[in-house]
Amino acid sequence: MSKRLIISEEEKSKILKLYGLKSNFINEEDTPQQGNKKTIEVPVYFESGCWSNTGGESCASGQVDTAFQPYIQQIKDYVATTYKGRPLQVVLSASESKVPNRNAEKPKIKVESGKYVYPRLKPGVLSKYRYNTIETYLKKVFDDMVANGEITSAPEFVKSEILIGGPNWTAKDSASDPKFKEHQYLKAVIRLKPRDPGPLTECLTDLLIGYDYDEVVRKNNSHYCDWGRFEVDANGVKLNRLDGKPYASVNNFQHSEIDTNQTQNQQIYTGTDDRNKGQYNFRYNRFKIDGELAKKIVALDPSGDITITTKGIAGPKAPELWPNDRGISSVVHVDAARVTITNSKGEVFFDSCAGGNCTQGSEGSWTVTPEQYCKTTIPE
After folding, report:
1. CA-to-CA dists, residue 38 to 155, 208, 293, 358, angstroms
2. Tens of pLDDT, residues 112-136
């Protein structure tokens, strides 16, 4: 028996979000903004009543080949950059309008009116056929990748409920009317398999992020500047420094507010110098992720990856952060900085200047996996 569900638009939106998917009626702002690509979404289009790759009757062959060919290289690139030996998942989602479906791959049959038409299909059946076609196609793609040593195991396939929505159909309607088309789609989303958020949240709690201008950075890039404030976020969630400030600062020249974290205190990393103290010296910033922040951050990437992103703050964009503007507020100085991440046990497991090579600029993104920040076995 095929799974089908007749629902409202609001309910449809909620269900798609549950599966980590989006559709045209979901606002972009509802979708997590992340520092690197976490999914590949492939829209698959079939001609009306068609569902196989081999075709038949009025259906052309190779429709699935046509849909996936532009994405095969993207899938391989995704595996090369994001997979890292972790379990993959393919989520299939489908929506049908209330236009009656027919099987255009079977011979026409004669009806009472004397006309010959394609056999009628019950709601949801056509999408079920298409699900099976895509699953068979992608299993072959991933089996080949296993055979070639590109991945260690094939992904898990998940088929979401088939959604049936939109306006009711009448005999006067045209099946090609846009009011029906927007409810007719099928997607395959390739992603890392979601993990249990509980252990991930526990591992992430008390994580300490450092953003510094220190002796390691100075060997590569000297810094004398008062225009070096940077927002720091984790999976798009903005972080506050230990002293509550919404930025990291490496200001160390002559600004009247050479700001906090001027001296390296291994316990709290706080303290403020006046404009003349600590000139040209090192600058240290610390951001701690508490339990509530950890929940939000993990929810934005169910695979457990954490992407730390830093972005410079220019004066006009945030005048409240530049109370003593010297008139050069349209710039932000971007040179090298050191990003470190320390787990709850006090172990530094990530250092953007590892090996003394500190050439990446102050702005950037750095992604760490659960295998890095969790020191215990992580349930799948």
Report:
1. 15, 24, 20, 27
2. 888 999 999 999 999 999 999 999 9
Instruction: Please say if the pLDDT value at position 146 is more than 90.
Output: yes
CA 267 to CA 284: how far, in whole Å? Answer: 12
* Three-class SS state of 12: helix
CB 314 within 8 A of CB 329: yes
> 12, 376, 361: which is closest to 162 by C-alpha?
12
Domain extents for the chain?
4-193, 198-373
Residue 104: exposure state from Cβ atoms within 10 A (0-12, 13-18, ≥19): buried
Model confidence at 290, in pLDDT bands (50, 70, 90)? Answer: very high
Beta-strand ranges (E) seen in the chain are 4-6, 39-43, 88-96, 101-102, 109-110, 116-117, 120-121, 156-159, 162-164, 185-192, 207-212, 229-234, 237-238, 248-249, 286-289, 306-312, 338-342, 348-351, 364-368
Q: Which of 19-33, 43-57, 122-136, 314-328 shows the lowest per-residue confidence on average (mean pLDDT)?
A: 19-33
Give the single-character DSSP code of 327: S
The answer to whether residue 232 scores a pLDDT higher than 90 is yes
